[in-house]
Specification:
This protein is of the alpha+beta class. Helices cover about 30% and strands about 25% of the residues. It has a five-stranded antiparallel β-sheet, sandwiched between helices. A four-stranded mixed β-sheet has the order 7-6-5-8. A hairpin with a 2-residue loop joins strand 5 and strand 6. The protein is globular and about 55 Å long.
């Protein structure tokens, strides 16, 4: 950044944001204004921007083109129109403190359910107490996963959607999606995992918007 003094030995920092397709061009303009002239590079399902000051930004579409590519003369414009297509996503967000399942299109929730299913944290105790605790915790986790899968089945059963987006605790979300209740949707492609806190209603609402937005990963140059 202009006027800032580099710090020796400081590692490059990375941050992620989610930008709706219609706002992507404005985001790129502001990134260029802050970091200098940009180079554009095709990168898998997205676009990589390289700025004059060494900062980079990886822009990734929320879904593959699947034969419906974005339109426009430039890489960013095509990515923005791809992200703006009205595709529908099923979300399964799970953490030990709760869950959220939803179907979303264009950033709007069409159907959803959130709930709290507590799973105890680990303990440092040993011996028989530790064994009893481990069994209780395993039973809690199993019951939670079954409950989440059943809620997802009820939500998903009334909607049509193209993709599954897992989030929260990656392992728990994968376990839920592997349960028999969700077998009818096992063949749907999965989108990139979404890192979220305990999925309360506000978290689920934001996740539904992020599911349909461009995922932007900015890496600042070392010492910035």
């Amino acid at each position: 950044m202009p006027g800032s003094r580099p710090t020796q030995g400081r590692a490059a920092s990375t941050r992620t944001a989610f930008v709706p397709g219609p706002r992507l061009a404005g985001w790129v303009e502001r990134f260029a204004a802050s970091h200098g002239d940009l180079g554009y590079e095709d990168h898998d399902d997205g676009v990589r921007l390289a700025a004059a000051d060494g900062a980079t930004a990886l822009l990734v579409a929320p879904w593959p083109d699947d034969g419906r590519p974005g339109r426009g003369s430039g890489l960013v414009e095509r990515l923005a129109t791809l992200a703006s297509q009205p595709r529908t996503v099923g979300l399964v967000l799970v953490r030990r403190g709760g869950y959220g399942v939803a179907v979303a299109s264009e950033g709007t929730i069409l159907a959803a359910k959130t709930g709290t299913k507590y799973v105890q944290s680990r303990t440092a105790a040993g011996g028989q107490s530790q064994q009893r605790f481990a069994r209780r915790r395993a039973n809690q986790a199993e019951a939670m996963l079954e409950a989440v899968a059943e809620q997802a089945r009820l939500i998903f059963g009334g909607q049509a959607f193209e993709y599954i987006l897992p989030g929260g605790d990656r392992g728990l979300a994968d376990e839920v999606l592997a349960l028999p209740a969700l077998k009818p949707w096992a063949g749907l492609p999965r989108l990139a995992y979404l890192d979220v806190p305990d999925p309360r209603a506000a978290v689920l609402k934001k996740a539904a918007a992020d599911a349909c937005a461009v995922r932007v990963t900015v890496t600042d140059p070392p010492g910035s």
